[in-house]
Amino acid sequence: MSSLDIVEAERLEASNLFYREPALYDSVQADSDSATVCQALIDQHFPAARTLLDFGCGTGRDLELLAQRFDCAGVDLQPRLAHYARRTHPELDIRVGDMRTVRLGHTADVLTCLGNSLAYVHGNQDVRATFETFAAHAHRDTLLVLCSPVAPIESPSPQQARVETRLGTATVTIAYEWDLRTQINTMRRHWVFDSGEEACDTIRRRILGPRELELYAIHAGFDVVAIIDESGGGGLIGPGAYTVARYQG
Ligand SMILES: C[S@@+](CC[C@H](N)C(=O)[O-])C[C@H]1O[C@@H](n2cnc3c(N)ncnc32)[C@H](O)[C@@H]1O
């Protein structure tokens, strides 16, 4: 990794409690269905797929399930998460790399970028570079499956929720900001654990609307074949969506 990548990885790690405590992330996400939804989309659009590359794989929680069906590898910017993923899933091939620049030297039938990982790439040039990375790992008909925010979350006042975690139950207060000029949706969380411990984190996600996703995809040689609401409901209402695109070369 370049020294800039290291700075970026350290900045990300400091920003999010889950990145500082990867096991906490896994425990809170335990009932996520993103790998199941992703697999259903692959079955629908490329049932013969055999190989899969996951960009922004985090703790490897989706790869764990996808690896039961595909020959998988994952890439993440944060060495701490990659180390955790290798330790908890020794069977997985996990690399440290930046999805804007990494080149693994081979292609895969399916490329995934799940759990909003794309939203951590903020600038237009960086988004474009990330789609070029996808193209660099694609062959004709490679399927790209993204799960990303397509609309901001806006809330007039902070919301509170009780969350079960491996560190015990916490009350988390969440506030959102939306900057229309940069299309960054900022989420600020204040965690108060029943033990009395407190933590704060700030997560900044770039929102790419459906038409923007189409444009970045087309520029990189992918045709969007579906954009489906994350909720699984009929219309596209956001905030999250799955985008499925096919590489035309
Ligand atoms: C919200 S997590 C999602 C992780 C995983 N996909 C999941 O669903 O559990 C976002 C991930 O994107 C990674 N990430 C952010 N920017 C990245 C970049 N430029 N290259 C590679 N990974 C990146 C972060 O390190 C983090 O693991």
TrEMBL record:
It comes from the Bacteria. GO terms for biological process: methylation. Its EC number is 2.1.-.-. GO terms for molecular function: methyltransferase activity. Keywords: Methyltransferase, Transferase. The keyword Methyltransferase applies. It holds the Pfam family Methyltransf_25. This is Class I SAM-dependent methyltransferase. It comes from Streptomyces machairae.
